[in-house]
Please model this.
Amino acid sequence: PAPPGIPHYLTHADLSAKEIYNLLTLAIQHKYNVKHLNKSSGAPLAGKTLAIMFSKRSTRTRVATESAVAYLGGQPMFLGSQDIQLGVNESLLDTSKVVSSMVDGIMARVGAHSDIETLAKYSTVPVINALSDKYHPTQILADLMTLHEIYVSSSSSYVAHQTHPSKTLPGLRVAWVGDGNNILHSMLATFPKLGVHLSVATPKGYEPNEEIVRYAQTEAGKTNTELNFSYYPKEAVKDADIIVTDTWISMGQEEEKAQRIKDFAGYRVTSQMAEEGGAKSDWKFLHCLPRKQEEVSDEVFYSPRSFVFQEAENRKWTILAVIDALMVKKSFD
Ligand code: CP
Ligand code: NVA
Model:
């Protein structure tokens, strides 16, 4: 394995609340610098390369990452599944040693979470998780940044940067209605640590990973955060400030589509469901995208309650913060 001491970003379970807040404040600062001050970065990554190795499709994560690296003056090197031997025809150990000997950072989108762990174990440069079957941590940073902006009541980068997210996020009530998937797992690994309440409804058989639930319960106990699990969407959305969902069919589950659509009957996020379940009257909606019709109605998705496009843009600022922390500052402090 590579020598210890290289910071990686695989899951928020590895980070403290303070380190997560540091990433958020860095993201808020970058957005403010670019959008309000029109400031250049000073190109701290000039001459440096980030290898972006994706074994699955991506719109947001790829565009966010390539444009973030360009802003920092570095070179993004995109390597798709047809370009690189990512766990195919060569061991991940060998790929990690070879690629990390030539670049300054690796970002990878993989199937099994153990793949990203293997890459990190043998890499001599920082590794960033761009989505695995277990976690999608950069997505949750963007969600938190968006919630911060919503609750400072402004999408203005100027207003958002004047308030610390530790003033806006704790105490918010998030309801998850959907699959017990990588996005929910990342929320479970993050929200209880920050004091963000989480109420979850999944169909039977689609519950989140038990080990991650136990981790979240332990963290929630330390911070006095509420964490609830049920099989009833209307129970989960009670008193919710924010309702979140994701596709019912994650990448790699395409063959289960017909069964999943049956099993998720009644889980579609609609205004009627939110109202009947007793969500707060001004509840907001988030979704990591890409979105399918079945999990949320157009009437919610394209309404003023929905912050999905701001959330998508914030992928850029939060990924920029992660790259800045790992490749420029070389620390989450
Ligand atoms: N939300 C997200 O990760 O989108 P992409 O798959 O398009 O990157
Ligand atoms: N749960 C989805 C998230 C996509 C960004 C998937 O893994 O495909």
User: Anything to note?
Assistant: Residues 308-329 form the longest helix (22 residues). Residues 137-312 form a domain with the Rossmann fold fold (CATH 3.40.50.1370). DSSP finds 14 helices and nine strands in the chain. The radius of gyration is 19 Å.
